[in-house]
Specification:
203 residues, alpha/beta, 33% helix, RdgB/HAM1, nucleotide metabolism
C-alpha cells in the first residue's frame, strides 16, 4: 500500500483524509507521526499561502512529496470571515465551542437568506525542487441558528446543507466524505494522484 504524508496535526482532518484516501488504497501519515517537526505557524493571508507554507516546510524537512490543506468557513454576511482564521476565530486555536459561539453571536438577527456560507479547502502538493501544485474544493450551505448534530468537528454543527435538510454534523461520515470541501478538493487532485503517488514511492 502506498503512503502519503499529510501536513496536519488536526485529528479531525487526519481522520477525514484517511477515509477519503482509503478508497485509493493509499495510507496516510500525518504530523503526529513526525513529532520532531513541531507546529507550523500559519502566517499566510490566504488559504493557498497557508497550505503551501505547511506542505513546503514538511517536504523540505522530510525530503519527499507532502500534501497540506488549509481550509475554513467563509460567511458572506461577515465579509468572508472567519476565513483563514477559522480555527482561531474566538482567539484560541481549535476551540470549536467558542468559535461556534462567536459565529452565532455575530450572526444574531440575520435572516436565513442572509446566512449563506461555504466551506473552502485548498490542497497544496509540494515536492522538493519542484513547483507546488494547488487544488481547491468548496461546499455551499447556510449557517444554522443553533448547533445540531454530533458528527464531524469545527463548524459542522452549524453548517446547514439545504439539499439534505441537515447540518454537516448530522449526516453520516461516509456521506460527508463524498460531498465535503475537502473531498471536492481531492476530486480535483485525483487526475494527478498517480503521479503524486509515484513521486512518493520513489523516495
Amino acid at each position: 500500500m502506498s503512503k502519503i504524508i499529510i501536513a496536519t496535526a488536526n485529528k479531525g482532518k487526519a481522520k477525514e483524509f484517511e477515509k477519503i484516501f482509503a478508497k485509493f488504497n493509499i495510507e496516510v501519515a500525518t504530523l503526529a507521526d513526525f513529532p520532531e517537526i513541531g507546529e507550523i505557524e500559519e502566517t499566510g493571508t490566504t488559504f493557498a499561502e497557508n497550505a503551501a507554507l505547511k506542505a513546503e516546510t514538511v517536504a523540505s524537512v522530510l525530503n519527499q512529496t507532502v500534501i497540506a490543506d488549509d481550509s475554513g468557513l467563509i460567511v458572506d454576511a461577515l465579509d468572508g470571515a472567519p476565513g483563514v482564521y477559522s480555527a482561531r476565530y474566538a482567539g484560541v486555536a481549535h476551540d470549536d465551542a467558542k468559535n461556534n459561539e462567536k459565529l452565532l453571536k455575530n450572526l444574531e438577527g440575520f435572516e436565513p437568506d442572509k446566512r449563506t456560507a461555504r466551506f473552502h479547502c485548498t490542497l497544496a502538493v509540494a515536492t522538493p525542487s519542484e513547483k507546488t501544485s494547488f487544488y481547491t474544493g468548496e461546499v455551499e450551505g447556510v449557517i444554522a441558528e443553533q448547533l445540531c448534530g454530533t458528527n464531524g468537528f469545527g463548524y459542522d454543527p452549524l453548517f446547514f446543507l439545504p439539499d439534505f435538510g441537515l447540518t454537516m454534523a448530522e449526516i453520516p461520515a461516509e456521506k460527508k466524505n463524498e460531498i465535503s470541501h475537502r473531498a471536492n478538493a481531492i476530486k480535483q487532485l485525483e487526475k494527478d494522484l498517480v503521479e503524486v503517488v509515484e513521486k512518493v514511492t520513489k523516495k
